Amino acid sequence: MGGVRKQNQNGLTDKEQRIYDFIVEEQERVGYPPSIREICEYMGLKSTSSAHGYLVTLEEKGLIKRDPTKPRALEIISNKTEQCKIIHAPIIGDVAAGTPILANQNVDGYCPLPAEDFGQKDVYMLRVHGDSMINVGIYDGDKVIVESCDTAENGDIVVALVDDSATVKRFFKENGRYRLQPENDNMPPMYFDQVMIQGKVIGLLRTM
């Protein structure tokens, strides 16, 4: 059995990415894409059939269009590359959306997110337990997308650290103390003299 070829965040192997980058660079440099033989020379490929194989793969992945009857008929689908760019947000521990539980800072894995939406932000994800935020559609088992920060405005939904435990609540500063407000009509607010903001909830991922 052959080994599994490693792919990057765009779903390309190293050679596929190098060939695609070369096509883009040549298109920008001289105004037209490279020929099959030029791709072979650039990549050190001995057979033009190998280059053809890579081009077929790039076409199947939606990155280029080609006309096999013409030597340089490669069309770059540039917006596709932007759409397929992703970041991998770490999934960190668990967060109680009911009674706070001890914060676990171990990374349990990574979750792909579109770079177009989250690429400029320092984000991570936390699993939610409990039903204290159901009024805003955050349910037990959801993963919240969190922008890392240490400040918040009144009304923000935050990840707050209280007595070394993390919880997801709506944040308010009032009368010299902090109120962490559940979004559940059956749960009372929580008041603290000090809280540490770990981030603001900016999104939600639910696995059906």
Automatic annotation (TrEMBL):
<feature type="site" description="Cleavage; by autolysis">
    <location>
        <begin position="97"/>
        <end position="98"/>
    </location>
</feature>
<comment type="function">
    <text>Represses a number of genes involved in the response to DNA damage (SOS response), including recA and lexA. In the presence of single-stranded DNA, RecA interacts with LexA causing an autocatalytic cleavage which disrupts the DNA-binding part of LexA, leading to derepression of the SOS regulon and eventually DNA repair.</text>
</comment>
<dbReference type="Pfam" id="PF00717">
    <property type="entry name" value="Peptidase_S24"/>
</dbReference>
<keyword id="KW-0678">Repressor</keyword>
<dbReference type="GO" id="GO:0004252">
    <property type="term" value="F:serine-type endopeptidase activity"/>
</dbReference>
<dbReference type="InterPro" id="IPR006197">
    <property type="entry name" value="Peptidase_S24_LexA"/>
</dbReference>
<feature type="active site" description="For autocatalytic cleavage activity">
    <location>
        <position position="169"/>
    </location>
</feature>
<dbReference type="InterPro" id="IPR036388">
    <property type="entry name" value="WH-like_DNA-bd_sf"/>
</dbReference>
<dbReference type="InterPro" id="IPR006199">
    <property type="entry name" value="LexA_DNA-bd_dom"/>
</dbReference>
<dbReference type="Pfam" id="PF01726">
    <property type="entry name" value="LexA_DNA_bind"/>
</dbReference>
<dbReference type="InterPro" id="IPR039418">
    <property type="entry name" value="LexA-like"/>
</dbReference>
<keyword id="KW-0378">Hydrolase</keyword>
<keyword id="KW-0238">DNA-binding</keyword>
<dbReference type="GO" id="GO:0006508">
    <property type="term" value="P:proteolysis"/>
</dbReference>
<protein>
    <recommendedName>
        <fullName>LexA repressor</fullName>
        <ecNumber>3.4.21.88</ecNumber>
    </recommendedName>
</protein>
<dbReference type="GO" id="GO:0006260">
    <property type="term" value="P:DNA replication"/>
</dbReference>
<feature type="domain" description="LexA repressor DNA-binding">
    <location>
        <begin position="10"/>
        <end position="73"/>
    </location>
</feature>
<dbReference type="InterPro" id="IPR036390">
    <property type="entry name" value="WH_DNA-bd_sf"/>
</dbReference>
<keyword id="KW-0804">Transcription</keyword>
<keyword id="KW-0234">DNA repair</keyword>
<dbReference type="InterPro" id="IPR036286">
    <property type="entry name" value="LexA/Signal_pep-like_sf"/>
</dbReference>
<dbReference type="GO" id="GO:0003677">
    <property type="term" value="F:DNA binding"/>
</dbReference>
<dbReference type="InterPro" id="IPR006200">
    <property type="entry name" value="LexA"/>
</dbReference>
<feature type="active site" description="For autocatalytic cleavage activity">
    <location>
        <position position="132"/>
    </location>
</feature>
<comment type="similarity">
    <text>Belongs to the peptidase S24 family.</text>
</comment>
<keyword id="KW-0235">DNA replication</keyword>
<dbReference type="InterPro" id="IPR015927">
    <property type="entry name" value="Peptidase_S24_S26A/B/C"/>
</dbReference>
<dbReference type="GO" id="GO:0009432">
    <property type="term" value="P:SOS response"/>
</dbReference>
<keyword id="KW-0805">Transcription regulation</keyword>
<keyword id="KW-0068">Autocatalytic cleavage</keyword>
<feature type="domain" description="Peptidase S24/S26A/S26B/S26C">
    <location>
        <begin position="90"/>
        <end position="202"/>
    </location>
</feature>
<comment type="subunit">
    <text>Homodimer.</text>
</comment>
<keyword id="KW-0227">DNA damage</keyword>
<dbReference type="InterPro" id="IPR050077">
    <property type="entry name" value="LexA_repressor"/>
</dbReference>
<keyword id="KW-0742">SOS response</keyword>
<dbReference type="GO" id="GO:0045892">
    <property type="term" value="P:negative regulation of DNA-templated transcription"/>
</dbReference>
<feature type="DNA-binding region" description="H-T-H motif">
    <location>
        <begin position="36"/>
        <end position="56"/>
    </location>
</feature>
<dbReference type="GO" id="GO:0006281">
    <property type="term" value="P:DNA repair"/>
</dbReference>
